[in-house]
Amino acid sequence: MQGKHMSNPTAAMLVIGDEILSGRTRDANMHHLAGVLTERGIDLQEVRVVADDPDAIVAAVQALSGAYTHVFTSGGIGPTHDDITADNVARAFETPISVRDDARALLEAHYEKSGQELNEARLRMARIPDGAALIDNPVSTAPGFTIENVHVLAGVPAIFQVMLQSLLPKLTGGAPVMSRSVEIFRPEGDIAGPLGELANAYPELSMGSYPFIRDGRFGANIVMRGSDEGRLSEAMSKLEVAFQS
Amino acid sequence: MQGKHMSNPTAAMLVIGDEILSGRTRDANMHHLAGVLTERGIDLQEVRVVADDPDAIVAAVQALSGAYTHVFTSGGIGPTHDDITADNVARAFETPISVRDDARALLEAHYEKSGQELNEARLRMARIPDGAALIDNPVSTAPGFTIENVHVLAGVPAIFQVMLQSLLPKLTGGAPVMSRSVEIFRPEGDIAGPLGELANAYPELSMGSYPFIRDGRFGANIVMRGSDEGRLSEAMSKLEVAFQS
Which site among A50, A239, B130, B153 is 20 to 30 Å from A169 CA-CA? Predict the structure, then answer.
């Protein structure tokens, strides 16, 4: 199904965090990012989830950064000892990292206003790789950053989302991909034949079948995606005619 | 945090499906698998999500199968043209794949009983790589399979879950990893110092801090994991004393 919108920018996501892999926390950022990028015409092609492990982070950043236009990371940029994302993204690019004046100034102003101490732990959140551009964080100030084609965002969903909003205007989108979907309350095995013929007849559209079970009945959501609205409507009409009951 | 329970079997998951990457569907199987494996003492160390793309599937299966004790895949084993998982898992192991008699017999019995036709599309679900062991599917019959260390399961959550149940007794678990957690309603920057000292003093435990924002207040769940219950309780008590208010 991939590769149909080849002129669009591509993206990958890297989720960093033991809490997802232990089943303690259910990741919410992947689903959010996927929806936002799809709207924007950026083609999310891969997601990886790795543990709070330095070498795993470095390897994933290098692999994804080399393969896709953009990489978005989530998690591991807070003040605690297990927040090791910034250091290892820097390591992936062999770039020095230290407390940077611009990030420190943001934190100083924020903690002064809130009457909290800018202690050593919090100062770790001002560690930014040389040459990286800061990403605004209107929720809790500690910034994300972009280095090369890697965008480093927080893991807390509310902060991930505002950082993505800050970043989005700076990213070039692609041709909008339109989609149509229809729910067919028939077993996928009945839908497969006619759908396969349509997929052959409309090679420029991507067609997917996503089965479900609801109230003990089998059905499937059929989704067609493409950039030619006329062809999309035509193919969808044919499908609907085939399954009128 | 990883690598603390090094004697336990390791695992990776491969989620196959455009619908997750387009934001249309929110994956539910990752969270379920993570919880089940953690209980079982199997250490889930990586998850990848790839599109319905033959080469992406082959590359991911090969990479993960070489690196971990077990690999669990979800999605792409139904009857429609976009169900390409079985063929590409076979390709990853350079193993022939065809409609196998045992799988065909299961489907024949099922569709005869339900009065549905075992058409060409449905017969695709009997395509099983040579030498693979079938995995039971009490919900809709079409089986999953295990080839080498890769377990190929359905994407529909209800079916993924029963297949995993069928499979689980065959997998060797590791030492149970115990965990304790406490919710501290303080900003992570206040928790980080004492927690970092504890992490240094108890190197055999893994300690994670998972921040949240609730009703406009910052807090964090602190999770400690390890196999020595005494040490775990001791460290957790010290943390609680430090943050008694």
Answer: A50
